[in-house]
Every structure is written in C-alpha cells, then in structure tokens.
Design brief:
6-stranded antiparallel sheet; 1% helix; disordered N terminus
Length: 764
C-alpha cells in the first residue's frame, strides 16, 4: 500500500529508463552499512566499491556510504558489516591474519580483530576533518606493526598495532602528496607520491630515502609487494618492478595498444599480476611471467580494484570511471585472471516506481523495464522488455490482478495486457489520458488521470467514465489532477494534489473525502502523498508533514513525533506499522541533496525510529507485509549506487533502544527558557538530535483574532553521557514541541521519543 509523491507523478513519467538484468542471487543477503535493510537489486549489493583485499578465502571490500563487506568463500557471496562511517571508505588493510582488518576514510580509521564483529580501536587524524588530514593509506605487515600516511605527508606508527596509540614518525619529504604505502616488515617500507617519486625507509619511518625520481616515471597510483623482495608499482603510463625490497626499481613495458592509465596492481605470486585502469576500466593488464610480457584481458563490466585469493582465483570490484565514479559490480576469475564472469546482477539504467501486490509479490518498473519479486524482495525476475512503440515511451504504471494477467500503462496513453504473466503483451487501448492504472480483477481496469476516473470491464478494450462524487459521469471538474490509485483493504482510494476519493464497489462509484486543513482556516492542504490502509484509516503527506485520519478525513490530525518537515513518500501495512521517506540526516552531517533516511513506526506514529538506508534518494516505498518493505533508490548513469532495497525485520538492526524526553513544567505562566532532559537506553557514547519547533500567533484581520502558525522544525545536537542522559536549553514562547531522535550505531537500534509539548502564555 506504499504510495509515491503525487506532485511528482508527471515528472517521474520521464524519469530514468532501462532495466536491471537479474541473475541468480548470492548465497547471503547483503545489508546496508547503517541499518537492517538488505539489497534486492543489484546483487550482491549496490554501493560503490573502492578496495578489495584477500587473506586466503577471506575477503573484505570497502566503498561509498561506509560500506564494509566480508566474504568467506573466495568472493562468491558477501555479507554486509555494520559501520558508523557515513562517508566513503577508501582504505582497507588486512593486518597479518584474516580476522584482523583496518579500514577507514577521510580522517578516520577503525580496527577489528574478530572479522568485523566488533571494533578493537579507532584513530582520528584531526578534530575537524579537512583534506590535509585525510588518511591516504595504511600498512600493517603484522598484527602488531602498523603505519599510516596522511595527505599532508605525515607518517604515524601504530604502537603495538593499536590505532589508539599513534606515534609520529618522520614525514615523507614534502615534495608531493602521497598516494600509496606498503611495508614489507616492521622496519622496511615505501611511499609513492602522485608526481612519480618513491621514498623508502629501513628504520621504521625514522628516515626516508628517495629511490625513484619524478623525472624517471609518470604519476604513480598503487604499490604491491609479493614478498620482502619482489614488488610492483603502477600509475599513469608507468609500470615498475623491484627485486630488492624497493631499494631500486626497473620500468616494465606496457604493450602497444593497451590502456596506459594504470591504477591498482595486485599479484598472486612473483609472476602473476593484474592491473586495473582508470578509464574505461573494462579491461585489465595481466602478466604471467613477472612483467616480461603483458596483455589486456576483458572484464564483463568496468572494475576499479582487484585482488587474488589464490593463483587461480581473482576478484574485481567497482569501476573507476570518468569523474572518479565507482560502480558496484563484482566479477570473478578462476583461471588467474584470463577470463571473467560477473556475480549477481548488472545495473543498466533505472526504474521509477515500485508497486506491491501481496505480502511477497511486488513489481519495479521504469522505461521499458519490468521486474517482479515473489519472495518479498530477495530475488527479482525480469519479465521482459515491454514492446513500446516510440523512443520516448515510458511505463507509468503496472497492475497484475492475477499471476498470469497484467496491465501496463505508458506515458503516451496506451494500455497493454498480458495473459502470460508478462512474457508477451498486446495493446488493448490507446490515447488514454491517465497517470495511474489499477486492475481489481482480470477483467476490470481503472484509469486515473486528466479525464477523471475511467473504468473498463472488458479487459481494457473500452473505458467509460465512473461516477465521481457529486459530478455526473464524464465530468472533468476538479478531477484533472488525479494522479494515483491504491488498494486500501477492500476499498480503493484515488488521489491528487487537490482531490481525494474513495470507492467501495470496485471503482463504479466514488465519494469525496476531506483533505487535511490548514491551521484554523477552512483551507485544504495540497496532498503530496497518500496511503490508506482501510476505507476509514489513512495517512497523508502535505507540505512535507504527516497527517492521520481514523474516520475517512473527519478529522485529520498532524503526526507531530516525526520531527521533520520534509516527508516525501510513505508506506503503511497497518494503522500501527509504516515507514516515511525523508531528507533530514539527523546529525549525521550536512543534509544530502536527495536524502537517505526512512522513519519507522510500530505504534501508530507516536514514536519514529530514523533508519539510515542510502546515500541517495528513495523515490518509492511499498509495504509488502507487516515487516516487509520495498524501497526504490533511483538508478541513473551518474548515480550508480542505486537499486531496490527490502527488509523483513522492519529495517532495524542492533540491540533494542529507547528514548524519552522530560522537562520541569509543561505549562508556563510566561515566555521562558527551559531545560529539556532526555535518556537513551542503553546508554553509552553517541549523540542524539533534538527536533524542536514553536508556534506564534498573528492578528489576521484586526480586532485581536488569532491564527496559529507553525514554525519549521529546527535541530540541535546533544551528547549522550555514559548513563544515557542528555539535556539542552530552549526558549519557549507560545507552544513548543520537542522530539528526540537517535540514528543508531553498530550495536544499538535507532530510537525516537514521543513528542513533548510545552506551552507558555500567549503573547496576545
């Protein structure tokens, strides 16, 4: 019953095109880094990846949005590991044994000694992170010996391998910014710079010696040692080899016609190596004889990082393309990198919407693509390309009243019918001015659009106007902006920015429902999105705020505890259980352009839990059961980290947590400053966001008549003490409302408080 934004109905008709080419699912579902959501498409996951490393069959990969993945079968299947890193992770190092890993990005590093289950230490280079303090690379030749190099040429020794015990070493000579580092022992290592110099230390970074000059080679990007003696370095038009631990380097020949923008190099042994390239990234340079000869090998999709599990098994992830964009594809080779096959699914362009049908069945569609899930979002089947007639045709809506019978509406007004479960399609009607389509049964089809509501009882061949409200069949008055239709239990609800109608007879007749009002005036708000769970109970988004009715719109009440003004989609499975898509980031950093949170309630909106789901916008939500949800994240050529997400756990992860707010007095005799106190259970380190807003009163027409006007929500951050308590002071003038929100962390679920209202004497 999840809905999409009504205002965007026409705009999304021209949204991203293309389909996903699905393949068999990997053995494990991959969760997103910050909540309990899982990837349905693409598989194994859809966040951009930057690095992959192996220790035997154990592999780890890191990438955008704090993504940390683990594989225990040589890269065939992957699981997601929770992180507290919302930014991109670009540093990955296995510290001497499979369970010890160091990962990070920007100005932070984390270490785990149990394969990612818990963190054993962390490091931050600066209190306020800027580019000079970014972590460029880390190298741990053993669990107890580690080094970190920063963008400003600083080198740090991690005493005993502990990230919390950094010992400043001698900086790399300040001739250029460092780009890569590797130590072959506790004392010997090299650092590469972006201009093509290589510096070497043999005394644990106490001193550095330049061993390669920028005059001799081009820009460098990557270094890899096979053992204490043999190593390789690669960069733009440059490929080097050392046989004496980095004391001297010899250039290797790049074959004619090969891509010369070399990037990352990894080797299985002293003879077999693979090198990725910067652009287009769809081929690798491979040598099997220690660099004496080399040849290009093709990959099924562009890749950016490569690693060996064994001399035969190699895995490549991501895709470094123009503009430093990394994609999420995963490819494997079982012959040492000679041939490659892709794991999971390959992204094409995109979908525009998700429609739920039953507790396990939903459809995602856009452009000419249409896919179906029958297991609640875990796997997806491509139904085939819809035979659209013109290049600008797009699928607007899909409805399958039965497993074999389905209907499709495109943006040029054609209705297509399939009697084969989506394998083949036939045009049954043309030139229908509609935005949405719904088929209550295999013979009955409803069109919702600029000509009101039209109904067919012969499989879409002929449509007649339905009786809508007080208007006669065929009237278009007040119906031009109807843009959506939804099943609400046994009823149907049609909606638009300024219209809301209910049918309880399969769409024959419709009666108008009231919309949320605006303040004390009898002015109805424009609707952004609507979702009814029955003929009487429903939720609506208007002006970015959420409203609820239990009696068909008589009346509507605002749901205050969301603490946001930017709700743009919603999905409810029952009156008590639902999700909202919002843009606010709740203290995780600057608001993203499109937004990445959903809010989850299981008690009818009294409390909401903010779940960090994606770094990009969620355009369409669809509830497919009490705990199942499909969230569509748009796929665009410029936004590769996209796909379809689902949850069968409600989206929460970690131990249960709770939030509550209190204050001294709820009613004050005059305006004042108050202290709002709260408690997070369980306690510990972290921060909560307190959303607050006040109202003010204006004299509308003179004579002292008052009109209540709500201010927008504002946000303050509060540090949580060891016992879980926190507090902030706020001014109150009139009525003020407060909501606390905790986005969760690696061990604790998100939590939201009930709304706290405090009233001071009116200024009038």
């Amino acid at each position: 019953m999840g809905r999409w934004s009504l205002r965007r109905a026409a705009r999304l008709a021209t949204a991203a095109t293309g389909i996903w080419l699905t393949a068999a699912a990997t053995a494990h579902a991959v969760t997103v880094p910050h909540s309990g959501w899982e990837w349905g498409l693409p598989q194994p996951q859809g966040n951009n990846l930057r690095e992959v490393e192996f220790a035997g069959n154990r592999a780890y990969a890191v990438g955008a949005f704090g993504t940390l993945l683990r594989s225990d079968d040589g890269g065939t299947s992957w699981t997601g590991i929770p992180t507290d890193a919302p930014a991109e992770l670009s540093v990955l190092e296995i510290a001497g044994r499979p369970d010890a890993l160091v990962f990070g990005g920007e100005c932070e590093l984390w270490r785990s000694d149990d394969g990612g289950r818990t963190l054993s230490g962390s490091f931050r280079s600066q209190t306020t992170c800027d580019s000079s303090g970014h972590v460029v690379d880390a190298s741990f030749p053993s669990p107890d010996a580690g080094y970190v190099v920063l963008r400003d040429n600083r080198v740090l020794r991690m005493v005993g391998g502990r990230l919390s015990s950094a010992d400043p070493a001698t900086p790399v000579p300040n001739v250029s910014y460092p780009v890569a580092m590797e130590f072959v022992s506790a004392s010997t290592g090299v650092v590469l710079t972006g201009t093509g110099t290589i510096f070497r230390t043999t005394d644990g970074a106490a001193s550095w010696t330049q061993v390669v000059s920028a005059d001799d080679v081009g820009e460098l990007a990557s270094v890899h040692f096979v053992d204490a003696s043999t190593g390789y370095a690669a960069g733009n038009q440059t490929w080097l080899k050392t046989s004496n631990g980095g004391a001297s380097w010899q250039p290797l020949a790049i074959p004619p016609g090969a891509n010369r923008q070399l990037q990352q190099i990894r080797c299985a042994d002293a003879n077999t190596c693979l090198i990725t390239n910067y652009f287009p990234g769809t081929d690798l340079l491979r040598t099997g004889d220690g660099g004496a000869t080399a040849a290009q090998v093709a990959t099924p999709t562009a890749v950016g990082s490569v690693a060996f599990a064994s001399p035969a098994r190699a895995v490549a992830v991501g895709a470094r393309t123009a503009g430093f964009a990394y994609r999420s594809a995963t490819t494997v080779s079982d012959d040492g990198g000679l041939t490659w096959r892709q794991i999971g699914s390959a992204p094409a362009h995109g979908f525009a919407k998700v429609r739920a049908k039953t507790q396990n069945t939903a459809f995602a569609f856009g452009g000419r693509g249409l896919v179906r899930t029958s297991d609640g979002g875990r796997t997806w089947l491509t139904l085939g390309e819809i035979p659209l007639l013109r290049g600008d045709d797009r699928i607007l809506d899909v409805s399958f009243p039965a497993a074999t019978v389905g209907y499709v509406l495109d943006n040029n007004g054609r209705v297509r019918r399939s009697a084969s479960g989506g394998t083949t399609w036939q045009v049954v009607s043309e030139r229908q001015f509609a935005y949405a389509l719904h088929a209550p049964d295999p013979s009955t089809v409803l069109l919702i659009g600029s000509r009101g509501i039209r109904r067919s009882t012969d499989g879409g061949r002929h449509f007649r106007p339905a009786t809508v409200g007080r208007f006669a069949p065929g009237s278009t008055r007040e119906l031009a902006q109807l843009t959506d239709v939804d099943q609400a239990g046994s009823a149907l609800v049609a909606s638009g920015p300024q219209a809301l109608y209910l049918s309880q007879d399969q769409g024959r007749t419709w009666r108008e429902l009231r919309r949320p009002g605006r303040g004390l005036l009898p002015v109805r708000r424009e609707l952004d999105a609507v979702d009814f769970v029955s003929a009487r109970a429903g939720y609506a988004v208007s002006g970015g705020r959420l409203f609820f009715t239990r009696d068909g719109g008589r009346p509507w009440r605002e749901v205050v505890a969301t603490g946001v003004d930017d709700v743009y989609d919603l999905a409810f499975s029952t009156e008590q259980s639902g999700w909202l898509a919002v843009k606010e980031r709740f203290g995780r950093g600057p608001a993203s352009e499109d937004g990445s949170y959903v809010l989850r309630t299981t008690n009818g909106g009294r409390e909401w839990r903010p779940q960090l789901v994606s770094e990009r916008a969620i355009l369409s939500l669809a509830a497919i059961g009490r705990t199942g949800l499909i969230a569509f994240n748009p796929v665009r050529p410029t936004s590769p980290a996209s796909g379809v997400l689902y949850t069968h756990s409600g989206g929460d992860s970690g131990a249960a947590s709770a939030l509550r707010l209190t204050t001294g007095l709820r009613r004050l005799p005059r305006r004042a400053r108050i202290t709002v106190r709260g408690r997070l259970v369980p306690g510990g380190s972290g921060r909560v966001t307190i959303a607050y807003r006040g109202d003010f009163f204006v004299d509308l027409f003179g004579g002292g008549r008052q009109q209540r006007r709500y201010a927008e929500w504002q946000y303050a951050s509060a540090r949580v003490g060891p016992d879980g308590t926190f507090s902030r002071r706020f001014p109150v003038d009139g009525t003020a409302e407060f909501v606390a929100l905790f986005p969760g962390d690696r061990t604790r679920r998100p939590a939201g408080s009930a709304a706290l209202e405090v009233t001071a004497e009116s200024p009038f």
